[in-house]
Amino acid sequence: MSAIDIAAIVSRWIHILSVIIAVGGAFYVKLALLPAAKSTLADDAHQNLRLAINGKWKKIVHMCAGLLILTGGFNFYVAIHHEVKPLPYHPIFFVKFVIALAIIFYGIALSGSSPGFAKMRENAEKTLTIMTTLAIVAVMLSGVMKYLHQASMMSAAS
User: Fold this and answer.
1) How is 80-134 classified by DSSP, letter by letter?
2) What is the pLDDT of residues 12-62, one digit of tens each?
């Protein structure tokens, strides 16, 4: 196994773990935390909880976003240098990349404190629905890309 193969494996692990943490957090907030907080907390207590969580979560979202961009770029580099067929791989990658940027944008907007994104935080349920739906599509596209990559490698080997 070459150094690039080991780096590719480690990069994939970091990429997948970053997705699990960031997107898993979004699903948790949408499906458990937000409904529970809305039904049990007064508005001011709910707002205080949101601010406390966002203060800590923002650092994690930013770290995961950076790792996703770095490892995603490296993973793409590895894929294109392992004889993956450009069509349909590259257009699917492009769509997934744009979706990933949108997910990162929503994550940063929701976890931040910028007044420009206050409406998104006020409508967190709607924003989280968009974000988690995009995440599901990105995972589906990832599965297609992985299949295409493996199929390319198998046809190149034969």
Assistant:
1) HTTT--HHHHHHHHHHHHHHHHHHHHHHHHHHS--GGGHHHHHTHHHHHHHHHHH
2) 999 999 999 999 999 999 999 999 999 999 999 999 999 999 999 999 999
Q: Give the rounded distance of the alpha carbon of 8 from its chain centre.
A: 19
The four Cα atoms 57, 63, 66, 70 give a dihedral, to 10 degrees, of -140
Closest alpha carbon to 25 in 51, 64, 52: 64
Mean predicted confidence (pLDDT) in 63-90 = 92
> Taking the mean position of all CA atoms in its chain, how far away is CA 31?
17
